[in-house]
């Protein structure tokens, strides 16, 4: 977990949730390149295998474990598998997330419950399990993938936006209570990022509407988020705690009005 010439996490184990695609895959690959031993977790075993193959092709070290973050038994099994493979987790990246887009007055209760279970409860369960081991070893990095949707409202994001705002609050709570033990907790809030989670919503019309709102004049990529996570997950970020790093090409700073589309910016997945 200490910095070394070979990479910022030369001696660290990083568990990444939702690492079978999108932002999670980008993060897992980036951390492996930097020397981390990566536990690749996801609900999709096919996605896990593909990510493991990409890491192996670059000579990285990784293992895979199916994980449903909303299920406490599944969380315990994933962390136990990572520990049996190597050692207790030094870095946790809570990236797994889902979304459901509906107008506020028509938002289905069952969709609300499921989004909260994965995005909020899943973050809590994984952070508690990782946090206990991190406190014992006196070191740890927790990075939660939130979203600009947790900072500014957007049409159709009743559950998604609320869940991401809750993740930001949860991040600060972790920072407060775990900080005295050498454990930091921070969030990354992606703006409009092209991932499998967002792809279906990014029609040609939606992208055309989004681009004028983004000063960088482009959609973000998982690699943009991975770069931010790599810093917050490193030993060098030891004095950064309880913060939210917005990675959005200037989307929030621009402060322009939102479109009327049922669209979605950022987030894990």
TrEMBL record:
Residues 12-191 form the Ketoreductase domain. One of its GO terms (biological process) is monocarboxylic acid metabolic process. It holds the Pfam family adh_short_C2. PANTHER family: 3-OXOACYL-(ACYL-CARRIER-PROTEIN) REDUCTASE, 3-OXOACYL-[ACYL-CARRIER-PROTEIN] REDUCTASE FABG. Belongs to the short-chain dehydrogenases/reductases (SDR) family. It comes from Tistrella mobilis (strain KA081020-065). Keywords: Plasmid. NCBIfam families: PRK07231.1, PRK12826.1-2. This is 3-oxoacyl-[acyl-carrier protein] reductase. It comes from the Bacteria.
């Amino acid at each position: 977990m200490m910095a070394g010439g070979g990479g910022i996490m030369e001696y660290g184990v990083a568990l990444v949730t939702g690492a079978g695609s999108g932002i999670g895959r980008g993060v897992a690959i980036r951390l492996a390149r930097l020397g981390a031993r990566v536990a690749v977790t996801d609900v999709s075993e096919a996605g896990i295998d593909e990510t493991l193959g990409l890491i192996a092709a670059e000579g990285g070290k990784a293992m895979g474990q199916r994980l449903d973050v909303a299920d406490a038994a599944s969380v315990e099994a994933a962390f136990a598998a990572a520990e049996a493979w190597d050692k207790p987790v030094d870095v946790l990246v809570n990236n797994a997330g889902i979304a459901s887009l509906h107008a506020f007055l028509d938002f289905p209760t069952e969709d609300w419950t499921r989004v909260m279970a994965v995005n909020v409860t899943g973050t809590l369960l994984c952070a508690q399990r990782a946090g206990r081991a991190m406190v014992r070893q006196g070191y740890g990095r927790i990075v939660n993938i939130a979203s600009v949707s947790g900072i500014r409202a957007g049409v159709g994001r009743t559950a998604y936006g609320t869940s991401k705002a809750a993740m930001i609050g949860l991040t600060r709570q972790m920072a407060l209570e775990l900080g005295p033990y050498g454990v930091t907790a921070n969030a990354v809030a992606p703006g409009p990022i092209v991932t499998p989670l967002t792809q279906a919503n990014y029609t040609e019309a939606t992208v055309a509407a989004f681009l004028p709102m983004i000063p960088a004049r482009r959609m973000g990529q998982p690699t943009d988020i991975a770069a931010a996570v790599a810093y917050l997950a490193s030993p060098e970020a030891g004095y950064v705690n309880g913060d939210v790093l917005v990675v959005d090409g200037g989307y929030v700073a621009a402060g322009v009005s939102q479109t009327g589309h049922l669209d979605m910016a950022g987030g894990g997945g």
